[in-house]
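User: Working on a comparison across species. This one is Formylmethanofuran dehydrogenase subunit A from Aporhodopirellula rubra. Can you predict its structure so I can line it up against the others?
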Amino acid sequence: MLTRIRGSRLIDPKLADGPSASREASDLWFRDETIANPPATPTKPDLDIDATGCVTMAGGIDLHTHIGGGKVTLARMLLQDQMPPWREARPEGASSPALSQFLPAAATTASRYLDMGYTTCLEPAMIPCNARSAHAEMADVRGIDTGGYCLLGNDDVLLQLIAENADQRIINAYVAWMVMATRCIAVKVVNPGGINAFKFNTRSFDVDTPHPKNGVTPGQIIRVLSRAVYEIGLAHPLHIHCSNLGVPGNIASTLATIEAADGYPIHLTHAQFHCYGTDGPYKFSSAASQLVDAMRKHSNVTIDVGQIQFGQTVTISADAMHQYQNIKHATPRKSVLVDIECEAGCGVVPFRYRRRQFVHSLQWAIGLELFLMVDDPSRVFLTTDHPNGGPFTAYPHLLALLADRSLRETALAEINSDAAASSSLKGIEREYTLDDIATMTRTAPANILGLSDRGTLAPGKIADVVVYRTQNNIENMFRIPEMVFKAGKLIRQKGGNVNSIRSIDRTLAADLQNTTIEFESNQIADFRSRYAKNGTFALDRLWINENEMEEVLGSRLQSAGLRSTSEGASA
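Assistant: Here's the predicted structure for Formylmethanofuran dehydrogenase subunit A from Aporhodopirellula rubra:
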């Protein structure tokens, strides 16, 4: 099947020098699932699409969105009264619960992502003992390639190894084994050591605080894990949910986290929630400029923002310590805290962000400050930490705010006046270009995740292709594409379903079997023994084999996420 998209501007910073806005319209060819060079001789395509007046981009990639696993299920169970009931006999006029704005079912999640032109989404917090459930749920996000980040750093086995000052080689083997067993693409740590310390009645935990039982500090965990992730060859740096989420003055913890990494690559997730000072009459202020300054000094650091959106949502996090503190803010007044197999925790707290509330308004402004103050769009990524800051469906609106200063200033005038006055947002003139948007949502996520087959329109890459009708209204432009192709097949057109492509859904996972990591029999035996003493089932039960992945869980494995051997060490 030979396809040509004719007459659109190709927005891909990798394709040519100079801004895309200055480039003339051209054609994009793909054969079957792969983008191809234009034919050397005149050739009639099987499908010829006139895209005059449009722009074409690679499929979007969301590197942090909570779309699978036990925490999402718990949230749906807790909030049945906030959504149409999960039963056939619904009240008259009620819609399906799958259509919840902030917590949609898996199939609806896929539809909404495809409607915006996203074709790859990563679940950022997969507890090893829950990996099967998470993969099975994400397999129902049909038409979207998915993957997960293995959650470590609060599990007793790793904490014991660090406390015993185990050789880094042993730590590396443990981390690599867990990543492969759970079929993950990266490693994440949430409130390093703090979730485990919470179970010992600790209620605050900073980067240099010793664990009440084993004496390990978050700084040690960050240092050991970031090194392990780098040395075993994962492309994505250690994905860090810092200490003291949401606490005024937590910028100190965030900066200490950067120092603790000792120069190894790290990614700070939902950075807006970790970017607060204590200035002003409310003792709550923006520290965005401090984080941006630190990023200029430390080239090993990238962030995603976790931009909030006003309205009702639900916060779901492994960070049981801080979800416990947030219970008093729950709207409606109910919550769930769960201890999960001693590997981590889970807290579900419904929440409503209010436009006229000072703290919520300033959180909104801080997120936009980070987007606009980080000069390099390849180091800051578009997220709402769905659903924690708000639904991912807010992305078109966020892109409009970043690309249109006048729209941003209008929105700024509508929030709490004290928050608006204390924010530096009004003085920022920068406006995102289409190249900036393509970098932040396509090429940069592909690069940082080691997804070498996507994120660009270059020949030889997978034909995940999105065509947008050029409009002055950026939000409308990015809300519903003209066409979405997944692996070369047209599956969405102006928000309508065209083809089902169930057969090509993929789970992107790091295959470390052929790397330099060596698993010695005595190491694995030690891991089994430690896990048996702290868990409720055998370590080997964590392992998901390839046949199970496809025949039981419903998704095909695709090897991805490894760092290029040509990349040098940054430490």
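For your comparison, note: Confidence is low (pLDDT under 50) at residues 85-94.

User: Helpful, thanks.
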